[in-house]
Model the fold of this input.
Amino acid sequence: MFLQRIVRDGLKPALEYELERRGMTIRELAKQINVSPATLYKISCGKRDPRLSTLIAISEVFDPSDEHSIAIISAKFLLDEIAGKKIEIDGVLYALKGYNAHTLDECIVCAVRAEKDGASGIICAPILTSLIEKLVDIPVVQVRPDEESYRAAIDMMTRQLSKNV
Done:
């Protein structure tokens, strides 16, 4: 993490490390964050203190975050089709981030991790919603299986039970 490296090693070594790791020049970074190369060079040499907005912009390049994401807590086979996709809500792009869980304990851990990761909201099973709402300070919405899902499950159960008879 770039910000942790700044705290530990200082801005100049942290910046040099990240630029080298990515094969990026100061000029390329300056263009990405809309700062003049001269300004960024002075910051990197310690001749000028950066503005907070500049540090945040650099950090977003080196440690991109899904500033807008929606966490979906579910079993992996359900997440495979959804996670990684993006949706637009009122002109804002949200990444759908899957959190794989199979037990109640795992669901709780996933909810706390999702909030810590900066999720804007959480989607989970109805049985979890009220508990997770008590644990996090972001919106929680339950996903309800539809009639088609139940019909498919009933059909599958029928086939399995007919094999056992």
Q: What stands out?
A: The chain has two domains: 2-62, 69-163. Strands lie at 69-74, 86-89, 92-100, 121-124, 140-142. The mean pLDDT is 86.
